[in-house]
Amino acid sequence: MLINGLVIRPGERVLTRLVISRLPSRTVIDVPVYVYRAQEPGPTVLLMAGMHGDEVNGIETIRRLVRRDLLQPLRGTIIAIPILNIYGFLNFSREVPDGKDVNRSFPGNPRGSLASRVAHRFMREIMPLIDYGIDFHTGGAARANMPQVRCLLGEDDQTDALAAAFAAPFTLHASLRPGSLREAAMQQGRRIIVYETGESLRLDEAGIELAMAGTFRVLHQLGMLAEATAAAQPSIVCRRHTWLRAKFAGLFRSHVQNGQFLEKGQVYGSVADPYGEGTVRLETPTAGYVIGLNHMPVVNQGDALVHIAWPDNLPPGRTEHWPHLLEMPPERRRRTTIRYRIIYGAECSVNQAL
């Protein structure tokens, strides 16, 4: 196996560093890559985090696996990259300094933007070596994700088997996004699943433990570990999921928690006028599980509030979203109705809001 100009033989464990670029101060930016090769041949599995520098849960997951010396394959090879986007990690940022997203820059270009160069180096040095991969992520922009695996379900048996082995609390069907790592891997016949948990710049201890346990199950399923702890309960598989978005700007208060099951029409939160002139109650348009939650209290129209998913045996229900006004003094209802009509371009009746 050849990585970064270094020959890694069976039975060897190596740390190498991919030089990406330099900071304006001339400080070298390199990406540490841990390689664990067994004596016996087998599949090569990538464990990678820090594609977005502020998504720390995956970084902590791989750090623990490396620090505790838990990556000892019986066969094949494990490649562990705790942080791909060193720039974002240093700046507590999702993107690289040019503002671009590495996970929308694959397969990259050696003469392109900084994000494109990071992607290209990965595609040249790492992608040709792997068979399977787990890409660890965290919710962004004050949004917290319930522990979940995202992948293309029903497209090929290998991906389905990886997701089933990981057995996260939720398994979601997620289409390939242009420029993403998953798309680039699929085009080369390699299978990568994404694990998401928690919120950016916040450690989610339960999600980290689930990530480690799921990783062990995948490695065990591939014959690379002798044993792994079975999942406490079966994964809830959801092929349909959507974000409920704010119809109105204001102060958002959530009334639900991640993982909670909501009945159709159940109130999941409210958006209030910051000057105390009205509050809008938010109801779910369909039954389903909360798998993502916005913790940002100040929201604009169109902001994602709650990510809801439903298994195949639950009807999708209607897609429109019509919240209701909470109780307010009768003398204020009319002017609140007029205010919403002017600001939001829609009308609220005395007893029913948009």
UniProtKB/TrEMBL annotation:
Pfam families xrefs: AstE_AspA_cat
Domain of life: Bacteria
Key words of the record: Hydrolase, Metal-binding, Zinc
Transmembrane segments: none
GO MF, one annotated term: hydrolase activity, acting on carbon-nitrogen (but not peptide) bonds, in linear amides
Cofactor(s) annotated in UniProt: Zn(2+)
Residue stretches making up the Succinylglutamate desuccinylase/Aspartoacylase catalytic domain: 41-220
Name this protein carries in UniProt: Succinylglutamate desuccinylase/aspartoacylase family protein
Species per Swiss-Prot/TrEMBL record: Hymenobacter qilianensis
